[in-house]
Amino acid sequence: FGFLTSSFVQRFCIYRFASLISLHIFYFLSYGWNLNVMPVLDQSVLCHINADISGMKVPWLYVGMVFSAFCWHIEDHWSYSINYLHWGEPKTWYGVPSLAAEQLEEVMKRLTPELFDSQPDLLHQLVTLMNPNTLMSHGVPVVRTNQCAGEFVITFPRAYHSGFNQGYNFAEAVNFCTADWLPAGRQCIEHYRRLRRYCVFSHEELICKMAAFPEKLDLNLAVAVHKEMFIMVQEERRLRKAVLEKGITEAEREAFELLPDDERQCMKCKTTCFLSALACYDCPDGLVCLFHINDLCKCSSSRQYLRYRYTLDELPAMLHKLKIRAESFDTWANKVRVALDVEDGRKRSFEELRALESEARERRFPNSELLQRLRNCLNEAEACVSQVLGLVSGQDARIETPQPTVTELRVLLEQMGSLPCAMHQIGDVKDVLEQVEAYQIEAREALASLPPSVGLLQSLLEKGQQLGIEVPEAYELQQQVEQAQWLDEVKQALAPSAQRGSLVIMQELLVTGAKIASSPSVDKARAELQELLTIAERWEEKAHFCLEARQKHPPAILEAIIREAENIPVYLPNIQALKDALAKAQAWIADVDEIQNGDHYPCLDDLEGLVAIGRDLPVGLEELRQLEVQVLTAHSWREKASKTFLKKNSCYTLLEVLCPCADAGSDTSKRSRWIEKELGFYRSDTELLGLSAQDLRDPGSVIVAFKDGEQKEKEGILQLRRMNSSKPSPLASSRTASSATSICVCGQVPAGVGALQCDLCQDWFHGQCVSVPRLLSSSRPSSTSSPLLAWWEWDTKFLCPLCMRSRRPRLETILSLLVALQRLPVRLPEGEALQCLTERAIVWQGRARQALASEDVTALLGQLAELRHQLQEEPTNCRLEESPTYPATPDSDPHREGSGKDMPKQAPGLLSNVDSMTSHEKVAPVQGSGKTCLEVLSSLLPQLTGPVLNLPEATRAPLEELMLEGDLLEVTLDENHSIWQLLQAGQPPDVERIRTLLELEKPEHKGNRTRGRALEKRRRRQQQKIDLGRKSKDLVQEELQSKKARNSGIKPKEGQEEFEDETDSENIFLTSTDHRPILKGNQNTFHQNNSGSVVSFPSLTPLLHHSCPQQEEL
């Protein structure tokens, strides 16, 4: 099946999406082989039909499937057709030539007479199929072809064709009519008239429309239209004469092209009328063509009248115009032939020949040999005119264009004389030739005079350049002038009073001298110039070596090189660079002396800047090595201090850690700064303290800023504590949504079990997101282990990562850093800050010791020591299930039963060693109970009571203030821990925090236990290898003895071998285990009998207590 394409849709797509269509697609849209363009080309007759005729002017698209066929048919009006297969399977065609069209029709009528009797125009309906073999058997010639994708198939007028598709494909087809189709179109109208078939368009109207504008017709088309118009006029005269003989005299003009086709069709033959038609006044609904005037109606001839488009006088006028258009080419050709061959002896002007060429272009004459001769003649004349204009134009124009030679000038003169057109510029060429010949004579005379005058030669050279012709004598003049000018430049460059020229100028002079013609004076100047250039390059190379050498030379050597190079009359860039480097080195030495002899030690930044500058200088400097050692020592001290204070992967700098936290009062600011530090863009604490780069060089500024920062830090943390204390607790059962909610470092709101509150800023965090204290370890060394039930000594103090920014080393470590700092001859901002921090810590330590030495606090410390001693001396023969009790305090619960006498006898003694065990030992099952120590602690949480001290408010307030200031210090002090124990003992135990710490510590202990087992296995394997190595010699001897025994016929007993194997394996096992004692102290073992009852219990001796860091690094 097929469907219609519309040129309107094509035009819409072109102009609507013109910006999206590339240039090559535009080219194909207007290409002649485009089936949308072919019917409306200038050489196609259909371009003169304004209407879009479906199937003829507008292509159809055909989608075929396997064995889908198209019947025997010919095109409308017997026009040409062209079919293009875009893609798909081939299409098979069967065709009959136009000469056998009537024969094919007769064969089909003879074979199927019944069909043609009922439908005479059956073959025009595309419904008739007949086997090509049948047609060929009756003498009809049939040809066959296969059309593949990308191929065209063209059918000629009245050439019957049919075919089928070999598969799925896609094709496009359209009609077109050339000039040779016009006779066939006229015959088709006569054929349609006999068959009474409707016409697609009026053939007479098409001919008259083309004849009305003959100048727009192609020449071949105009000739064909003239012939058809002549036949049509003769036929129209004959038909109108017949109408007049019938007695019809009435007539009126009618514009048939304005009527619809169905209103101007002949009632008899269905032909579309245009030139004339016969109508009746009494029967206005119909008309007939002049071939059927007797078939109009039965009315009288007086009632009938003639309707005509043109009179018989107008038709010959149109025919005459066509004749003029058809014969215009012959007239034009005669004119061109006479002009080119100069048959009349008169040369035409250039304008006359150009007019003939324009006439051919405007009238669209076909390309011919005569037209090509005319165009060649015009092109040759234009080239000559262009050359002449170049000769007579100004001097600037002649210099820019290539200059012709004298020979070419004579050839141009001869060429202009041989052209068939008159050239008035020939006189200008003769004048130029005469000037050139006169110049040649004058130049030869000047060159022959000795010695030649440079001024005369220069003037003659300029005169020759103005001629615009390449003269041989001008080249000799140019050589003489170049030699004289070059010698003058060399003399000026080497003159003592002249400014020194650079090496580039000398090299350019040598290059220029090599290009000019040789002469004795030129050769001598070149030799002198080359010698001077060689010496200068040698000194340049020596200076370059001093500038680029790895081993730098001292200033004295450089000064000697510069003094010697001053005697060369050439500017040397490397020598100048060496001068500049030496000047910079001297200025650098002066800067070093100034900074070293100042009132204070130089700053590290200043020394680094001087070292960087000194390293870039190509001069050997003794002071540079000293500065490098000082900078290296300062960096080493800073790195040691950073390792002492900074945590691993810390986002703070050492100076920020040593300085007070300037924005401690803003929770939002601290958190945003934490995130900004993690991302890498933030402001440092030194900037927030108002310290610029220049202030850091002044010790007084650093101290003043540090003191101000201390007070701001304290005020800020108090404000932050008040704000965070007002936030709802995450441990509360019911909380209301509020904007003032704690936010963890992970960005989420901490809620429920597992949340910890910072003891400094009072904010809440997830226990899994921060480093938490180890509950079963102590933060300070002690010679004795702490009783398990002394809960106020448990390490439950938690500082968030926003408050604890460093490792917080002990004061002794800091003092060693200060001692090393005093030996540095360099000032560092970090050193100034460390001194301020140390002074701050020592001042706080003195205040803390004074507070701890007061009478009230001393008494409280004595009570704690007595209570701790009492818990440590309790007998250890009680069962774990018994509830512990504490000595009563004045503020204890009066309903609490029990006293110190009722405390468990065995549990404290048994569990007092837990704190001294290793990580994988702490989670080991308690003997006889199957529980780990962490489980025992969890079971004891509900039984903890407190407070154990009556801490008055007058004593508590100073201690809390000291605790606050001590927590702000990035230093670890024992007094801080003592104050913390006093404050803990004076308040009830924080059971929720202890429970949270226990839950967070259990997974870690499990991992430690697994790692401990793996480590133990690794130790056993290593010990086995060592034991096997020691026994290798004994095994060799035993093997030798065994061989001797086998040779002597003595076989060892199997039981003995098995016993020896078992003994060896047991020895290996015991050796690996004996070197790893589990407990230090008594070596009692733990045994059970077969019934599972405990026979004896171990006696555990407390281990030495080791200090552990309070919190892990973030």
Automatic annotation (TrEMBL):
Its cofactor is Fe(2+). GO terms for cellular component: chromatin; fibrillar center. Keywords: Chromatin regulator, Dioxygenase, Iron, Membrane, Metal-binding, Nucleus, Oxidoreductase, Phosphoprotein, Repeat, Transmembrane, Transmembrane helix, Zinc, Zinc-finger. The chain crosses the membrane at residues 12-33. It catalyses: N(6),N(6),N(6)-trimethyl-L-lysyl(4)-[histone H3] + 3 2-oxoglutarate + 3 O2 = L-lysyl(4)-[histone H3] + 3 formaldehyde + 3 succinate + 3 CO2. GO terms for biological process: regulation of androgen receptor signaling pathway; regulation of DNA-templated transcription. SMART domains: JmjC, PHD. Residues 27-193 form the JmjC domain. Residues 873-912, 1002-1064 are annotated as: Disordered. Residues 892-904, 1027-1042 have a biased composition (Basic and acidic residues). It is an enzyme of class 1 (oxidoreductase). Its EC number is 1.14.11.67. It is found in: Nucleus. PROSITE patterns: JMJC, ZF_PHD_1. Residues 1008-1023 have a biased composition (Basic residues). This is [histone H3]-trimethyl-L-lysine(4) demethylase. The lineage of its organism: Eukaryota, Metazoa, Chordata, Craniata, Vertebrata. The gene is KDM5D.
